[in-house]
Amino acid sequence: MIDLHIHILPGVDDGPGTLDESIALARSVAADGTRVVAATPHVRDDYPTEPATMERLVAELRQVLEDRDVDLDVRPGGEIALGRLQQLGAEGVRRFGLGGSDRYLLVEFPYAGWPLDLGMQVAGLQRSGMTPVLAHPERNGDVQASPERLRPLVEAGARVQITAASVDGRLGPRAKAASFALLELRLAHLLASDAHAPSTRASGMSDALIALGDDEVARRLVRDAPSAVLAGELLPAEGPSLRRRRRFALPRFRR
After folding, report:
1. pTM above 0.85, yes or no
2. For 77-253, which CATH superfamily applies?
3. Nearest in space to 147 (alpha carbons), one of 156, 163, 160, 130
């Protein structure tokens, strides 16, 4: 599996506070079957992570995991708040590219409300050559009330990441229902953990894939689509659709 949204860098946001905690999270994620992650620290007013800080910590963590034989490939990235985009500028945005891609950027979707300039922000990123990936919109009350509301943003070029803990119900029935609605509408493109610790807000990617009940959709969400992002390839506007309900063969994602 490939997980393009995880808070694994130490001491920069509400994820691990120490390097030891980052290593513990890495071991937990690897044990769950994930082999590649994009480290996506918050970049917002309360956690104003700088590109150089992210890059340094990614390099340090990669070296430590290699030294300790933890089978996890950590790539760069960031979870960027809408209000920080202009402050970062073109170069800062590029350095926070998702998984090291110069084509995709993980953008934090607000948990409440609908920003009036959201469409303009999506269009602006598109004009600059970056495709915004909207993180966890299924947790937003407006999206939960009307998942179809995301369609104009997707048609304008945005792509959507839903969270494992939403799919398997850990974040409550409304987030779970919205996740499945987005999948049925073909408005979800990626599944990620948004993990912050090995126990609290843990990865749970494999549990979410079992909850999906469709191995083809699972493969597209955690292998095919994230692989395309890492390669800088274009993701189609239509995500996978949950049309078949059959037991998910988890071992296929253990390698």
Report:
1. yes
2. Metal-dependent hydrolases (3.20.20.140)
3. 160
